[in-house]
Amino acid sequence: MDNIINIFIPAAGFGERLQPVTFHIPKPLLPILGKPALQHVLERVLSLPVNKIGINLHHKKEAIEDWISKYFIGRGGLETCPYILFPEETILGTGGAFKNAEHFLNKGTFLVHNSDIISDIDLQGLLEHHLSLKNLVTLAVHNYPEFNNVIVDEEGFLRGVGEGLKPALTNGEKLAFTGIAVYAPEFLNFLPDGVSSVVDAWLKAVNAGHRIGTFDVTGCYWSDIGTPDAYARSLFDILKTDGETVFVHPSVKGCANIEMQGYVVIEEGCDVGALHATPLHLRNCIILPNTTAGAWHTVPLLENCIIGPDFNIDLDRSAIFGKYNEDEGQLIGAGGSDRKYYRIKRGKKAAVLMRCSSNDPDFRRQIEYTKFFLNYSVPVPELIEIDFDEKKAVFEDAGDTSLYNWLKCTREETEIEAIYRKIINVLILLHTNATDHVAACPLLKNRIFDYEYFRWETDYFLERFAEGVMCIEPDNISELEKELNSLAFKADSFPKTIIHRDFQSQNIMVQPDGQLEIIDYQGARMGPSAYDLASILWDPYYRLEDNIRERLVDYYISKIEDKFDADYFRETLIVCRLQRHMQALGAYGYLSLVKGKKYFLKYVPEGLRLLKEDAALLKDEYPELHRLIMKL
């Protein structure tokens, strides 16, 4: 599209509904997982063919000016996209802000995007729609019952605005304005000097016979962060969409002694200090930038709140998560499984309800494996109730602090190595004590990670990742098939123990006392023990330092050297790394492209880096596979 437009971002308001937050932080600079709301807006609008950006200011204007200057300098200087600031001595209202910037906005078509709106609305589509219909104004609208007050006729043109108004036409409807619109410069003629409302100007324009059209974006993600509940809901929604439950800014200090449950956000510059002998519990909490441990840190549990330097705002849980269903509980988990897990109450304690589909073959395995592992000291959640007919079961609550989330807090190298040694101790229990007694669990004993399964994994990689994600087909498929067959035969020849099969950081839960519990073990099989070690030490979810990894491999070998020759085990480890990383990348492709869980794609770069390392070590033995992997 050749049309160059100007952008206007209203950012002057007091943010009264967000007080006391906005006593400290102007609403445009409210952090959204490490980035101010204004940055989210700028990144969206800068995807358009932009000439200049205008931003109006009033409340805490110096802070916003300072941030904007640093942002554009960081992008390479003002020449990349010049901006103009429009300070207001007094608040001029939504219309007055436009009039105050008239000499900037009257140069041509301009798009207005409120600074407190977080959305994935198709801005290019909105702009093209506006230009193709030659409207005076085009409003982005959607069906959002809480805010529906814009009356639109059957052709999509504005007919009125107001809470109490009803659609005048049979086919008219009420929709909500998103805070995003495109204007022709002639619209400015309907605005008086001084304080005014843009809505009044819309209605004047309609009464004068001009067309104010709409662009229906119903179904797009949209959030107005104008209240504490809406702000929290936005942050938690973004976490959920990204497959996360926790955000901890890298600059945060002192969070090593915090137990995090539900959704937790700790923003830049916080020092939450380990002041307790026992952990501080945070559940569904947001800690705002530069907050230090204060009076709030004497409370053992903080739940459903926003915490600032000198305030604590309680949140309406139902406004954020919807009404709590006593029977179902709170949906938890963001992994790749089709199963549903709910946090429920059993007496005064939390528990986890697992619901499976009627044809889930792993349900029985989950139950039998749980009983078996508990009998042989493998730390998995206790089984509380079973309903085989309904395919549901209740387990002890292992909490929300996975190793993956635990590692988001800045940790000392010694602390990281110590917890990984604990994890290896669990693996050793699985690979030795539990394996020695596997006859007590025939369902597991007879489930073998064999040649056919290894070949299934590599076919999965080729179909779902190489071809599905990367759109690359092998050059010499017959030679590649021979190598993959050879790889599978070799992996199948290794001695077999019980293996978890998906032993990675999201399936290891860290308890408040530092103990561990293992979850998602229904896929366990009899296979080469190195597959589990490769899964956790070469985990695409978290990159261990090479020196720590080598010490941990040595530690594992020292514990099992009476069962395996050390050199032989290292040989099995290289093969299992190659096999495991092909499986993981195949899973990321399947989960993102078939199941729609796009957030798994963020793990592809590290998974691919690891796979290329593996392939380089075995390139003489598997040259065709090495060629394919290096092309990815």
Which properties best describe this structure?
3 domains; alpha/beta; 27 strands; five-stranded mixed beta sheet; 632 residues
Outline of the structure:
With 632 residues, this protein is an alpha/beta fold. The chain has 20 helices and 27 strands.
Structure description:
The structure is a single chain. The chain is α/β, with parallel strands linked by helices. The protein has three domains: about 5-225, Spore Coat Polysaccharide Biosynthesis Protein SpsA, Chain A, CATH 3.90.550.10; about 230-320, no CATH class; about 410-630, Aminoglycoside 3'-phosphotransferase, Chain: A, domain 2 (Alpha-Beta Complex). About 35% of the residues lie in helices and about 20% in strands. Strands 1, 4, 5, 6, 8, 9, 10, 11 and 12 form a nine-stranded mixed β-sheet that branches. Strands 14-15-16-17-18 form a five-stranded mixed β-sheet, covered by helices on one side. Strands 19-20-21-23-22 form a five-stranded antiparallel β-sheet, covered by helices on one side. A hairpin with a 5-residue loop joins strand 25 (about 510) and strand 26. Helix 18 (about 565-595) packs antiparallel against helix 19 (about 605-615). The longest helix is centred in the C-terminal third of the chain and has 28 residues, at about 565-595. It is elongated. The chain starts with a strand and ends with a helix. The model has no long low-confidence stretch (mean pLDDT about 90).
